[in-house]
Amino acid sequence: MTTETTTTRTIVKPYASYVLVTRQSKEEKTHGGIVIPETSQKKSIYAKVTAVGPGLWLDPKDGTPPRRLKPTVEVGDVVMLAEWSGNEIRLDCEGGQIGEDQLFIRNGDILAVVTE
């Protein structure tokens, strides 16, 4: 008799102009070389985009047809956020790691896209 185990991955598709990101933690050191533990640091303002919604529908009042305002970021982009923006969630989602903290933010809450 064979036993099969199936694991289920939750796939999260952000709605409208929402973006799902994972905060990027950086190891911080003082000038003297002491490593500051992550629990003592401020929340990182840098995050990696893991999922993007399709965009927000705009319905103009002048009689022209509605159009979709597409998000300004793509999956894989590194973005800069306000420190306390978004709603934190923890789940096993496509593009993220098991138990990794994810953050839902609006496309408009992204301050900048970071390029190297």
Mind explaining what this structure looks like?
The chain has no helices and ten strands. It is elongated, with a radius of gyration of 18 Å. The chain has 116 residues and is an all-beta fold. The protein has one domain: 10 Kd Chaperonin, Protein Cpn10, Chain O (Roll), CATH 2.30.33. A six-stranded antiparallel sheet has the order 8-9-1-4-7-10, with no helix packed on it. It has a two-stranded antiparallel sheet with strand order 2-3. Helices cover 0% and strands 36% of the residues. The model has no long low-confidence stretch (mean pLDDT 78).
Task: Briefly summarize what is shown.
Helices cover 0% and strands 36% of the residues. By secondary structure, the chain is an all-beta fold. Strand 2 and strand 3 form a beta hairpin.
User: Which CATH architecture would you pick?
Assistant: Roll
Count of helix runs = 0
Arithmetic mean of pLDDT: 78
Fold-level CATH name: 10 Kd Chaperonin, Protein Cpn10, Chain O
Question: Biggest sheet, open or closed, and with what strands and sense?
Answer: 6 strands, antiparallel
Helical coverage, percent range: under 10%
| Class derived from helix and strand content | mainly beta
Tell me, what's the shape?
elongated
Task: Tell me the count of domains.
Answer: 1
Estimated share of beta-strand residues: 35-45%
Contiguous low-pLDDT stretches (5 residues minimum) are none
Provide the CATH top-level class.
Answer: Mainly Beta
- Helix and strand succession? EEEEEEEEEE
The overall strand count is 10
The fourth-level CATH homologous superfamily is: GroES chaperonin
Spatial order of strands in the largest sheet: 8-9-1-4-7-10
State the distance separating the first and last CA atoms: 54 Å
| Rg of Cα set | 18 Å
